[in-house]
Structures are given as C-alpha cells and as structure tokens.
Amino acid sequence: MKLILLLVASAAYICSTGAQEYKLVWADEFNGAGVLNDCEWKYEMGGDGWGNNELEFYTSHRPENGHQENGSLVIRVNVEPSGYGGRQFTSVRAITAKAWTYGKFEARARLPKGKQLWPAIWMMPQNSYYGIWAASGEIDLMENRGTQNNVIQGSIHYGGTWPNNQYSGSGEKEFAGIDFSRDFHTFTFEWEKTEMRWSLDGKVYHTENINKSMWSGKGVNPYTANGQPFDRPFFFVINIAVSGSFFPADKYGPPVTVDEAKKWEKPTMEIDYLRVYQK
Ligand SMILES: *[C@@H]1O[C@H](CO)[C@@H](O)[C@H](O)[C@H]1NC(C)=O
Ligand SMILES: *[C@@H]1O[C@H](CO)[C@@H](O)[C@H](O)[C@H]1NC(C)=O
C-alpha cells in the first residue's frame, strides 16, 4: 500500500515538472522546384464560386498558378481574357493530405496587393463529424483583402449547420506600419483544448475561449461536449480567391473586372513555409 502511494506521488511529481514542449511534426518549406508535392498536397479544382461567389477557376498542377521559387510557394492569380474553365481568372487552392487536432500551426508569407484579391491560409475538418458547414468547424488562420495591406483577420466558424452557424474572431485587425504585401510575416495559430490564439510575428493579437458549448443556440445542437467541433482533425487550405462574398458590394463595389485586374500591383502570395508543431 505504501509502495503504491509512493509510486503515484512520484508519477505526479514527474508530470508536474515535465513541461510539454512543442515538437515539429510536419512542414513544407517549399524549397523544391515546380508544382506542389503530390504526396503532401491535393489541388482542389473548379470554378463554381466555392460557396462564396468567387470569380476564379482553381487549376491543378499549372506552374503559372502555383510553383516553388526561391524557397517559397508562389500562388499567382492570372487574368485569362479568353477564358479558362469558363472563368477569366485562374488561381490555386490546395489542401494538405494530413490533418491534425491541436497544436501550433505557423505560416511565413507575403500577401498579394490588388483590388478584391482574397488570400487565405485556413483549415477545414477532415470529416463532417458534426454535420455540414459550419457545424464541423472552420479555422481561418489568416485572411486578408488585397487593398487593405496592413489588415488581417483570424476567425472560427461553428455553431450548427448553415444557416444556424456563427463565427467569431479578431475582426479586421490593423497593424500600423506593416505592409503585408511588401515583407514576409509569421502568422501563428495555437490550438489547445480550451483556448485558441492567433499571433503575428510572435505577438498574440486574438484569443478565443473554446472551453464552452460552441452551439449557436439555433437549430439542432450538434454538440455534446465543450470545445466541439474543435476536437477533431483539420487540414490546411491555401488559396487566393478573387472577389466574392468577402467583398460586399455596398462596401467594396461591384466584382473586379478584367481591366481592373490588369492593374493588380501584385497578384501573388509567397509562402515561405507551413509548419505544424504538437506536444
Ligand atoms: C526570385 O529571385 C530572383 C533573383 O533574386 C528574382 O528575380 C525573383 O523575382 C524572385 N522571385 C520571387 C517570386 O520572389
Ligand atoms: C473549463 O470550464 C470548466 C467549467 O465548464 C472549468 O471547470 C474548467 O476549469 C475550465 N478549464 C480551463 C482550462 O479553463
């Protein structure tokens, strides 16, 4: 009896002093050449608007829309005056083969500059375990509008199946003195069981408490425990969209035209790396 107590006490001692540290479990440093590595990535193709009335057609294995150069992945929106897949813009949207639950997710990137360009580094659930969007969740590590070059936002979507879903996040977060299209910056998302944190260049700018029921209160409650749906594996999505519902017409005007698009200052996003750390 005494011996058992001693063992329990000693285990507790080890547990309380052995701080868990993040270890790198996956990365793409984009140090290769050519298009994305097919073992790690899948291209999502098509031009049906992707639920947001987006104007681009996402291509697959097309170097002019996505290739590695100078140690970065370059995603480029091309203007296609004669059309491609029924659209006048092409871009890339790619997802990782692997998915993770909890951890630290980090991207170093330089963003586009131009009217109604919508770069995003985000995460979607591997399975619709709690139901269709957004019941099973969505995590937006970084979104930006190509004309607001000192603004990013981090968000989560959850709460129920559309239209009973909700979202929360940083909102438009302005960083004085920064031009995200000029220099590389580090975007970090830390996902723990009870809390999520979004950081820019190592400084936390937004925190979400997920130690609560994430149900919106509308429709059927898809959840049975705190923190759901953010207790399941999510994969990365990287893309640049063109126009769409991220640009409500009352605030941003009508969808961008080909003539306007020809004046985009920088229709590219360079991603130096994506890294995933877990404890
Ligand atoms: C890669 O480096 C070369 C040489 O410095 C430069 O001309 C080119 O613009 C760079 N490409 C990107 C995407 O930064
Ligand atoms: C999570 O919430 C429960 C109550 O719902 C509370 O007892 C617990 O301390 C919270 N955990 C953290 C880490 O905040």
Automatic annotation (TrEMBL):
GO molecular function terms listed in the Swiss-Prot or TrEMBL record: hydrolase activity, hydrolyzing O-glycosyl compounds
InterPro entries: Beta-glucanase-like, ConA-like_dom_sf, Glycosyl_Hydrlase_16
SUPFAM superfamilies: Concanavalin A-like lectins/glucanases
Pfam families reported in the protein's UniProt record: Glyco_hydro_16 (PF00722)
Gene Ontology biological process terms in this record: carbohydrate metabolic process
This protein's record includes keyword Transmembrane: no
Claim: Signal is one of the keywords in the record: yes
CDD domains documented for this protein: GH16_laminarinase_like
Keywords: Signal
Domain GH16: 28-279
Signal peptide: 1-19
PANTHER family: GLYCOSIDE HYDROLASE FAMILY 16 PROTEIN, GLYCOSYL HYDROLASE-RELATED
Protein family membership: Belongs to the glycosyl hydrolase 16 family.
Protein's name in the database: GH16 domain-containing protein
Lineage: Eukaryota, Metazoa, Ecdysozoa, Arthropoda, Chelicerata
